[in-house]
Amino acid sequence: MRSALLSDRRRVILGATALSAAALAPVLLSKAALATPQAAAELLQKLVKGTPRQGRIRLQSPEIADNGNSVPLTVTVESPMTASDHVTAIHVVADGNPAPGVLSVKLGPENGRAEISVRIRLAASERVIAVAEMADGSLWTASREITVTVGGCGAG
Amino acid sequence: MTQDIKPRIRIPSQIKAGEVIEVKTLATHDMESGQRRDAAGKLVPRKILNKLTCTYNGRPVFEAALEPAISANPYVAFFLRATESGTLDFAWTDDDGTVHRAKQAIKVG
């Protein structure tokens, strides 16, 4: 009688373990599919030729994002935006998403101000990196750590 | 199957010549990332608006390549030096090849 009860309990525990393992599996799989800082760096090397210097870019976003599905982000590049001295492109990547790319924009002197605002998805707390290309060929970069409470990218 | 993306564009109503204005755009679109699983555990195929362009009286002034990391109902805002009255033409390109167009009159002066 007693042993029957024990084995019942054991069966329940085993069942629960199997269930939680099944529930964890997709999480583990999606973790493995996340991009790495290296993948983000590799993508940036494909997008721009050369090594960017730190500076001239400001990334604005909440430091802590409650919802990774929609994180407001503003990228501002210091530039007079004249015919001879302007930003030609801004690239944004994130180093913890399933794919590192976020967006790339082309700008010119007609923009008057090198600033873009978007809402982005972040799978986890991660680093967002922006690189700006200037008319003179110089490259500038800046990054920002954003803490995400609930990840985007189909986690929930 | 083409969905209506209900493009919305906001620019200031009063613009002085030479003023730098913010152009705000919003489209209604799921921006399906290709990472999400449906109730049956199958991956939902990627389907996003992958490109947004803007021309000002025919001159290209803005182009954005969008990735799945852009949120659903993509909001994209940028700046523009308003030199003359005319038209801003916007085009969003869907992964399925559909191009959604929208016009915004711009009045300077």
What can you tell me about this protein's structure?
The complex is a heterodimer of chains A (156) and B (109). Chain A has helices spanning 2-32, 37-47; strands at residues 53-54, 57-60, 64-67, 71-77, 87-94, 101-106, 115-120, 126-134, 139-150. Chain A has 156 residues and is of the alpha+beta class. Chain A folds into two domains: 1-33; 35-148, Immunoglobulin-like. Helix content of chain B is 0%, strand content 46%. Chain B contains no helices and seven strands. Chain B has a four-stranded antiparallel sheet with strand order 4-3-6-7, with no helix packed on it. Chain B is elongated, with a radius of gyration of 16 Å. Chain B starts with 7 loop residues before the first strand and ends with a strand. The model of chain B has no long low-confidence stretch (mean pLDDT 95). The A-B interface holds A 26, 30, 33, 69-71, 81, 94, 97-99, 101-122, 152-154 and B 20, 24, 33, 35-37, 41, 56, 59, 61-72, 74-81, 83. Strand 6 of chain A pairs antiparallel with strand 4 (59-66) of chain B.
